[in-house]
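Fill in residues.
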């Protein structure tokens, strides 16, 4: 008889799917936020803001 938890595979699959869902949701939110900015600002301004955010993430990430 195996000592392995019979629900381990289900738990791992559940966690993997949860992480994938959160990633998709986060990317969707980001795309919506960028679209909103682009609707009310010049694309150059939006690009500059995103570049500044990317620099901060690289510096502090």
């Amino acid at each position: 008889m195996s000592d392995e938890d019979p629900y381990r595979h289900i738990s791992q699959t559940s966690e993997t799917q949860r992480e994938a869902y959160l990633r998709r949701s986060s990317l969707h939110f980001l795309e919506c936020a960028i679209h909103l900015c682009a609707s009310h600002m010049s694309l150059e301004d939006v690009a500059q803001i995103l570049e500044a955010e990317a620099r901060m993430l690289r510096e502090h990430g």
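The CA atoms of residues 11 and 30 lie 29 Å apart.
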